[in-house]
Amino acid sequence: MPLVLTEEQELLRETAREFVAERAPIAQLRQLRDERDPSGFSRELWSEMAQLGWAGIPFSEEYGGADLGYTELGIVLEETGRTLAASPLVSSVLLGGSTLLLGGNETQRKEWLTGVCGGETLLALAIQEGPHHSPWNVATRAETDGDGYRLNGAKTFVVDGHVADRLIVAARSAGEQSERDGLTLFCVDASAPGVGLARASMVDGRNAARLTLDGVRAERSEVLGEIGQGAELLDAVLDRGAAGLAAEMLGSLDTAFQKTLAYLKQREQFGVPIGSFQALKHRAARMFVQLELSRSVVLDALQALDGDHPDASAKASLAKAQLSDAAPSIANECVQMHGGIGVTDEEDIGLYLKRARVTQFALGDAAFHRDRYAGMHGY
Amino acid sequence: MSDLESFRAEVRDWLEKNCPPEMRTPYDGQTQSYWGGRKRHEQDPIARGWCERMAERGWTAPTWPREYGGGGLSRAEARVLEQEMARIHARPPLASIGLMMLGPMLLETGTEEQKREHVPPIVKGEIKWCQGYSEPGAGSDLASLQTRAEDRGDHFIVNGQKIWTSGADTADMIFCLVRTDPEAPKHDGISFLLIDMDQPGVTTSPIRLISGSSPFCQTFFSDARAEKRDLIGTLNGGWTVAKRLLQFERQGIGNMGNRNPGANAPPPLPELAKRYCGTRDGRIADPLIRDRVARLEMQQQAIQKTMARSGDEAKAGQNVSAATSSSFKLIGTECNQAKFDLMTSILGAQSLGWEGDGFEAYELETTRQWLRSFANTIEGGTSEVQLNIIAKRVLGLPD
Questions:
Q1: Does the active-site annotation cover B249?
Q2: What is the per-residue pLDDT across B90-118, written as a single tens digit (0 to 9) for each?
Q3: What is the mean pLDDT of residues A119-147?
Q4: Tell me, what's the pLDDT at A189?
Q5: Architecture of B255-394 per CATH?
Q6: Annotated catalytic residue within B77, B249, B334, B379
Q7: Interchain pair B327, A281: CB under 8 A
Q8: Helix or strand or coil: residue B234?
Q9: A4 interaction partners in chain B (CB closer than 8 Å)
Q10: Is B116 on the interface with A (CB under 8 A)?
């Protein structure tokens, strides 16, 4: 498949870019943060996004989706990344919805995925337990309780967990803490007895909850996929998550770079634009090249996922590693090149730096994905 | 059967009959690539025969127009030819600066007479070309070159000195940047000339590199003669021609990492690392080396995908920046350097040998290639020059 967008995809990009610029400018994130908005995103914006069909992009029309692919979802994520638009697109659609798509049975999809596509149901993925993304490192236990299960444990960095209707929880139904086998995914009601959710305000103005599970009852009908085989399902979900998040990062970093480029041309010192200094030109050129590489691997990964390419997992890890490396190198440079104004809260570039850092670590940093890539290639 | 499939069958059959078995083996480090040229009869007759047979069909320059001796193949057909050659491990029939740089430029810019005179001998490997750009005082600041060409009616008289002229000691002709108007601003007084090296006014002397090899020469012009008809482009308009040709050169150098491995090629990086650093649970035992290997393999993938995307964008009629070749030259050469640097780290003390016993052939070769790779980020415009070009042409940063 050629590494270019189709006409329809170009059109989607244009629509998304215009919508985001008009309805979700960066001032909106600033306002949500400053007002300590209880949701952390605009419910009104989210319902507009859902009306555009964005909440159901990769899902079948049967559930109210648009029946498109991850390439299209990635295009929209890239555009929302440009203005750092806060929305549950990553938590509820990319991660939660994908888990239902890949692991849910017909009843579960009908019941929950339909709500996701409509934007009414919000999902959050609760897998991480320590400071680092390490999907098999799960101490949370699922013990059989009659014909269902009881969940006990704690999760951290549950993106948008404080507003989720349902939580997709990775718990250990067998095996030792870091084993791949023995994991099971549950889709539990966030208001079930024993669920404790504490909103954590993150550095980027967004939200990720800490979750405690204290004897939470999960029915057999709330199990996603096979008992004890959650790792396979999670692998496929996290491939989509990595590629989609990399697309969002591409949009943010590209915009931060364009803003910085404009600043280099406008800001004068010693009587000339600072962009005429070779010390800055060369660094700007290197950022450009990094973004070019990033654009290629992101599109390649998204297309591979849509085409069920046998190397899709490796390509997703390549994309996330590339962007997780590019994130600090570009965002940090952008702040430095803005000089004094760059470290003020008033200037937007700091918001890009903060979001870059969160997305850099989310779903695995560059070292995690290089390790995964090497493992997949037999070394 | 589709046209392409019947073409494939035809190519396969033809190669089977025409590619000698000796040309289906990897280079062993001793044999040189076949360069052709007027002294081609002194080179390996089997390699020469292989080149001549391929050239008869124009397949040394598969996509060039037939009227100038090329193969006239579509890109898809050329890819089929490439695949079929790779399938039987056929050696490239002709290594040539004429094929890589001068020919593509002449086909774009040359007059009809110039194309008829110079392109077919490139395709047939009858003339070996070298490049006369840099001078001792004009490296990155190429436009400050001083080699003079004076107008003598029907010809020019050339005086001066060129450096880094690859293969000049065995070349027949040189394409050369010369100053034809010393009064004009430096970019506006340069012309692009073709000069026959078979004359007393042209002499060469090889330069030994840190790798031990001598791929480059110095070339001296002392009242050398160049014909008027061999002026490419307009008088004093050589800089435009020079820049276009540089784009072809950058693509060539940026692609170096993808060249056919020879018999002395080491195993792939992960294998090499396992062999020299040991394994633990099937992985490379040294976690830092393992991370570097993955980083490099991923970087290579990212570059390949970006090249593919650039090609796809061009095919889709999108605007491809003239600075694209600068980006690829920059990252391609840096990646190649990083690869050899990593390989020496993996080989450890086995990468420190220079010659003789105690070292595998590929270990010695890796050391030489590591040293040779330092030139990659200098030749064809340094990395710093490429960064200048990107900053100016793509990013529009002010001077």
A1: yes
A2: 999 999 999 999 999 999 999 999 999 99
A3: 97
A4: 98
A5: Up-down Bundle (1.20)
A6: B249
A7: no
A8: coil
A9: 309, 312-313, 316, 318
A10: no
